[in-house]
Amino acid sequence: MFDSLVMQRDTTDLTAENRELKLRLQSMVQQAQLRDGMFLLHYVADHNIFLCDAALNDALREEVQRLKIATGQLPNANGNPFNGGVQQSVPNYYSQPQQLRPPSGRQVQHLHPSPTQMSSNGQSLNVHSPGDPMDFM
Question: Biased-composition ranges for Polar residues (predicted)?
Answer without folding.
Answer: 77-101, 114-127
